[in-house]
């Protein structure tokens, strides 16, 4: 059963890569730049990252902003998000339409295919960082995806909710 889930994830990842390659003209549908966060949230995220660094971790941004089109694709794959395009706090734009995400995904090591595929060693290696992320993010008044236990995921084995790298502004979807 776990193997089937991993294969589905791998297929989803391939679909995502093919789609991104097929639309090279699209203005970076997936950003890892802190400049694509809403300014006030960016300040909070930088504090969170500094606190984690002080604990000996090495925070890396997996996703800051992503386009509604990419959000729709991830939603269709059904593995990486529960929200359709435009409804994720990663999709938020400012009054001028420029990226101003109210959510960010942070990992201790750069995102690679093993992590996306859910390789057990990679998940286990990230778990201590993700627990610390939850503590620090909560202390900063943010919502943490590790608190979301709405459906089963590979993170259950580590006592984490289904989106443990994700932190967002409270009420950000409104
Ligand atoms: Zn996220």
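Q: What amino acid sequence fits the structure above?
A:
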């Amino acid at each position: 059963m776990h193997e089937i889930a991993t294969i589905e994830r791998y297929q989803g990842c391939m679909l995502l890569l093919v789609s991104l390659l097929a639309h090279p003209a699209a203005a970076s549908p997936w950003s890892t730049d802190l400049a694509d966060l809403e300014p006030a949230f960016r300040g909070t995220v930088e504090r969170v990252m500094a606190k984690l660094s002080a604990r000996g971790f090495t925070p890396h941004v997996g996703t800051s902003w992503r386009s509604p089109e990419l959000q729709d694709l991830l939603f269709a794959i059904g593995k990486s998000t529960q929200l359709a395009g435009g409804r994720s706090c990663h999709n938020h734009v400012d009054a001028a339409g420029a990226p101003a995400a109210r959510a960010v995904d942070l990992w201790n090591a750069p995102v690679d295919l093993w992590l996306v595929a859910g390789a057990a060693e990679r998940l286990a290696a990230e778990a201590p960082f993700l627990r610390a992320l939850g503590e620090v993010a909560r202390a900063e008044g943010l919502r943490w995806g590790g608190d979301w236990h709405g459906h089963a995921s590979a993170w259950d084995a580590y006592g984490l909710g289904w989106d443990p790298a994700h932190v967002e502004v409270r009420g950000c979807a409104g």
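Q: And what stands out in the fold?
A: The pocket of zinc ion is lined by residues 63, 90, 103, 105, 166 (CB under 6 Å).
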